């Protein structure tokens, strides 16, 4: 089944995020075994998710959700919850970033604290994406109009994806390499 281009792009971003969350999970697994994880890789992932998902993907969704809620009363509750989760994810991501930065700088930071912060972040994100895919995207595709999609797109700064886009930023070079070696 072919999707509306906006929905196809939306799903593709979720796929990218899930790929990164998987990489992050692998590092958390390393932490569980008592080894030292790759903090730099973890930070790259969080930086990307903070910079692109929180600043671009989520504001666009918030506008799409707002419009969808006007058209579908039955979705209002889930849309409101997802909107709230965007704030929680941003805050949890910032918290995790601070802990990882401290760990990378060899400050004393408890591994248990990082484990909890990272595991919470992963669960939150994973469930969030799954709920959007299952409960929101099909309804959005059915009910949103071209002008809704345009408004959603314009709700965030016109910024290309700094990691998966056509012109990736140099600061994510290592992360890109890691992703392509995973995909191979
Ligand atoms: Fe979202
Ligand atoms: Fe999303």
UniProtKB/TrEMBL annotation:
InterPro entries according to UniProt: Hemerythrin-like
PANTHER family the record matches: BLL2471 PROTEIN-RELATED (PTHR39966), HEMERYTHRIN-LIKE DOMAIN-CONTAINING PROTEIN (PTHR39966:SF1)
GO cellular component, one term: plasma membrane
One Pfam family here: Hemerythrin
Organism this protein belongs to: Ramlibacter albus
Protein name: Hemerythrin domain-containing protein
Domain of life where this protein originates: Bacteria
Domain (Hemerythrin-like): residue spans on this chain: 7-140
């Amino acid at each position: 089944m072919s999707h509306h281009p906006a929905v196809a792009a939306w799903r593709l971003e979720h796929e990218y995020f899930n790929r990164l969350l998987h990489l992050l999970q692998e590092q958390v697994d390393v932490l569980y075994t008592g080894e030292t994880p790759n903090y730099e890789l973890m930070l790259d992932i969080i930086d990307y998710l903070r910079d692109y998902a929180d600043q671009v993907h989520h504001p666009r969704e918030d506008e799409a959700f707002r419009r969808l809620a006007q058209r579908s009363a039955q979705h209002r509750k889930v849309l409101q919850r997802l909107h709230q989760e965007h704030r929680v994810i941003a805050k949890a991501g910032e918290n995790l970033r601070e802990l990882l930065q401290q760990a990378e700088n060899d400050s004393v930071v408890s591994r248990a604290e990082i484990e909890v912060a990272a595991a919470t972040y992963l669960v939150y994100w994973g469930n969030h994406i799954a709920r959007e895919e299952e409960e929101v995207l099909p309804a959005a595709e059915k009910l949103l109009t071209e002008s809704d999609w345009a408004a959603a797109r314009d709700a965030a700064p016109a910024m290309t994806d700094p990691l998966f886009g056509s012109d990736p930023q140099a600061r994510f070079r290592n992360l890109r390499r890691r992703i392509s070696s995973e995909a191979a």
